[in-house]
Design goal:
- Helices cover 54% and strands 12% of the residues.
- It is an alpha+beta fold.
- It has a four-stranded antiparallel sheet with strand order 1-2-4-3.
- The relative contact order is 0.15.
- The mean pLDDT is 94.
Amino acid sequence: MSAFLGPIHYWLYRKIQLQEGLTEAMLSSILSEEERNALENKLNITYGIVERRPLEDVIDNGNIHGWLQGQIGIAEKRFAATVTEILHGDPTKIEVLKQRAFQLGLHNPLLDSNDAQEIYRALNDVLLEGMPCDHVNEILEQSEQRVRWHQTVDLHLPFWDAVGGKIENYYVLREAFVSGSLSGGHFSFQRIDGQFLIEEVQR
């Protein structure tokens, strides 16, 4: 089976795994083990489970593209539903979730580089933005000091709409995660008016 798989499939599978790691980080904010288990069971039943086993052991060799697309959908739904459920009872918990996302970023640091363009490429190896053929990101400005881009389409929005969630929460938590990944490095990350910016930190 592995003979039919290429590096791009493993690359995408790693990004799906990290997205599920973000969901698990959110679940860890629930103090009660009973409530945490209840929500996790609800996610498993309603949206399915993100595979954790080696890709070559689980992928549908006859439908590689479709299988990976399906896993993306499951990961996206689980994250959106988890955050929305946690914040439904207490919107102020977004601060706790931001801390969890930042900590996960700290444990998944991006490469230490002096080139914003390398940081952008490394970030693209981490963030789940649909399938490679979706070409979601369009660069508006790039140099060694900064890269600015926007999304041609928001692939995450339908998943958040489907669970009655706020898409802004997705971007708030993603920014916290990326900030953690860049912590201690030469660059910062921020979202401004719907655009994204990696910029050299002035020291």
